[in-house]
Amino acid sequence: MPVTGEPTAARPVGRWPRRSRRTLVLQDPGQVEGPRPGPEGAVVLVDRPEPRRSGRPRVVAAVRDLPAELAVLDEATDLARGVGAEVVIAHAVPLSFGEHSVGLAEAVHHGREVLQAARQRVADQAPDVPVSTTLARRWAHELLGEDLDADLVVLGGWRADRRGGLGLVAHSAVHHAPCPVLLVPRD
After folding, report:
1. Looking at residue 5, what is its pLDDT?
2. Tell me: the pLDDT tens digits for 128-179?
3. What is the mean pLDDT of the chain?
4. Best exposed site among 30, 64, 144, 148 by fewest CB in 10 Å?
């Protein structure tokens, strides 16, 4: 697995073994703001000090929609399998949908469908990896903030559009998640 970045930053690679053939680029949070680093298709690991969790390691895979974020699930599953971690698949329905808003039921239904399909994919790829799902009624960027109970969060990174920057959710995770963040290219 090719790795780019500071030689001293290689610690996370050993801690989170991967079988993926994608290049892994290691970066500090302040380096992530610019254009997509490394070669096309590389994943970016933003390192943090080791989180202080007890129990089985936990990898949170944040997904908005499938199949666009299948690579997020695949990376999360691969990493979890490598360290005996559980996978928690998270999806958020924004608070902009009030309790009686038109479209709330459809948004919740869509979220449940995404989570069910994601859970099935993880179970098919790694039946030995414990997997659970969470559908949160909050802003997605808040879901991945300081109170996140995870050892690693995996989510889609740079946008495929002409701007090519990080979206609000990825930006929030990079700067506020208490654990390492793995940014996976969006399909």
Report:
1. 44
2. 999 999 999 888 878 877 677 899 999 988 765 556 677 888 888 888 888 8
3. 79
4. 30
Query: Considering all CA atoms of the chain, what is the largest pairwise distance in Å, rounded to the nearest integer?
Result: 53
d(CA 131, CA 174): 24
Q: Tell me the one-letter amino acid at 47.
A: D
Q: If DSSP codes are grouped into helix, strand and coil, which group holds residue 122?
A: helix
Report how many domains make up the chain. Answer: 1
Residue 135, domain CATH: 3.40.50.620
Percentage of the chain modeled with pLDDT above 70: 73
- Candidates 134, 128, 125, 126; CA nearest to 153 is 134
Burial status of residue 144 (CB atoms within 10 A of its CB: 0-12, 13-18, 19 or more)? buried
Domain-embedded: residue 141: yes
Read off the amino acid at residue 55.
G
Single pTM value for the model: 0.82
131-136 vs 152-156, strand pairing mode? unpaired
Does a structural domain hold residue 18? no
- Asked whether residue 182 is assigned to any structural domain, the reply reads no
> Per 3-state DSSP, what percentage of the chain is helix, strand, and coil (rounded to 5)?
35, 20, 50
Q: How far apart are CA 137 and CA 166, in angstroms?
A: 23
- Whether 46 is in a domain gets the answer no
